[in-house]
Amino acid sequence: MKVSMQKISDIKHTVEMFISCNLIEKEVSKALDKMRKTACIDGFRKGKIPKTILKNRYEPYIRKKVLNDLINKKFLKFINEHDIQPIGKLNCVIKNFQEKNGCICRINFEIYPKINIKNISHITINKPLVSVNPEDVNFTINKLRSEHASWITSTLKIEKYDRVTINIKPIQKYKIFQEEIRLLTFIIGNNTISTELEKKIIGKKSKTYFIFSLNYKIINLEKNSYHNMILDFLINIIKVEKKILPKLDSKFFEKINLINFKSPEKMKNELCKSINMQLKYFVHIYIKYQLINQILNDNYIKIPVQLVHEEIKIFLESTYKNNLNKFSKLDFSPFLNKKLIDRLTYQIQSRIIFQKILHLNKIQINQNDLTNIMHNLLKINKIPEKNWKKYKKNKKFIQKSIDIASENAILEIIMQQANFVEEKITFKLLVKKIERS
Q: Trigger factor C-terminal domain: which residues (predicted)?
């Protein structure tokens, strides 16, 4: 099987392969022999069906499957040999098929953008020397109170930081389609929903509706581009809720797992200890973002539309799985805030950079380190030990643990090689800098 690759652009590539007729016929014959052992047809005993009968009945389906298997097998071998990482779904086209000669197949795909990382020893990073003072403790308490806030239904006008539930329907020539996003719940000013939509919602009340015009982006994955179209949507405000912060009492202490501390002062002292225990994690995150930002300053990493689209899809599935109509044909991504899209794009860029560093340094994850990370994650999330075995077999949990282990290994390399400038900083300022990154 002959294989050749053509570069269309920095990220777009085409692989063309020829599969001979002899190979196809050989694999079809093998598949028919295998089917003959298990196939059941009225009038014949199991394993005794004549091969010609199976061929007449099933050959077109078998030939198609054999051809797909041969293409996939050869393509996987080719990309592994050439260290190629395709993105997303492949576009496979049978260019020319002749029973006597064989077939020519063309596969169009995109790859991760290539970047050049300068020697890490030339990178200068601020190493935070963090102090924790009473203001930092109060800052943490306010964040915890906000995270554990309750919500009460309101008939007042919508303000920033209110929680709103809406339905979204597209309109064309004032005819409402069946596609609908139902019971979408979000917080105003949380940089999740489009700023333009939030501006329209603020000042209105529940049980009201309005028409919202949006520059809707239709994604063309094949051309790696967007097509803009102005569409109107009917926005129906179902419910408005106001945030109520919890009091600093025993119930609140219990929610944040400080059960044995009945007074605010004792709770603050314990919280201060907890902050100090987590400083290593926050310092690592701060160093990580500095590294990524410096590499991005030196390297423009163009992210393919398809990769951004997939990242948005993952975000929507994890964040709005209970709010979005599972069967809706309406694409929700154009309603997202630009800052959120930028953050998701930044996450992709971060992964590409870290994969490059992993590859350059030939980092291998130690099994003991991976096991310790798994145990720490399970403890942090308060998973009973009797359930640990089940989690350790979960693919998503394993991948998350591997990602953390890889990141830790990279950060260790950075700590050893990069130039550091000490930076005195409070915990509150450190958290705010991380949030802005």
A: 265-408
Q: Residue 31: CB partners within 8 Å, gap ≥ 6? A: 62, 65, 66
- CA pair distance 266, 272, nearest whole angstrom: 10
Residue 102 near residue 19 (C-beta atoms within 8 A): yes
Confidence of residue 76 (pLDDT cuts 50, 70, 90): confident
What's the gap between Cα 105 and its chain centre?
A: 31
Structure tokens at 344: 């998701």
Q: 41: which 2 tokens?
A: 């047809």
Per the CB < 8 A criterion, the answer to whether 300 and 7 are in contact is no
Closest CA to 24 of 57, 71, 56, 58: 71
150-244 carries CATH number 3.30.1490.20: no
With contact defined as beta carbons under 8 Å apart, do 117 and 164 qualify?
A: no
Q: Which of 310, 398, 407, 304 is nearest to 350 (CA)?
A: 407
Q: Which of 140, 125, 142, 124 is nearest to 426 (CA)?
A: 140
Res. 206 pLDDT band, cuts 50 70 90:
very high
Structure tokens that stand for 331 in this block: 């694409």
Whether the predicted pLDDT of 234 surpasses 60: yes
Give the tokens for residue 120. Answer: 């890490």
Pick the CATH number of 113-148+264-436 from 2.60.40, 1.20.120, 1.20.1740, 1.10.3120: 1.10.3120
Contacts of residue 259, defined as CB under 8 A and 6 or more positions apart, other chains included, come to 253
Topology of domain 3-111, CATH: Alpha-Beta Plaits (3.30.70)
State residue 65's pLDDT score.
Answer: 87
Q: pLDDT per residue over 264-291, tens digit each?
A: 777 788 888 888 888 888 998 899 899 8
**Interatomic CA distance for residues 331 and 325, integer angstroms:** 11
Structure tokens at 194: 């489009």
Dist CA 176 CA 171 (whole Å): 5
Q: How far apart are CA 251 and CA 145, in angstroms?
A: 12
Core vs surface per residue 153-188: b (16+ CB within 10 A) or e = ebeeebeeebbbbbbbbbeeeeeeeeebbeebebbb
Report the C-alpha gap between 427 and 437 in whole angstroms: 16
The alpha carbon of 310 is separated from its chain's Cα centroid by a whole number of angstroms, namely 7
pLDDT at 61 over 80: yes
3-state secondary structure of 154: coil
Residues 6+ apart with CB under 8 A from 94: 67, 103, 104, 105
C-alpha distances out from residue 237 to 21, 56, 156, 345, 405, Å = 62, 61, 13, 30, 44
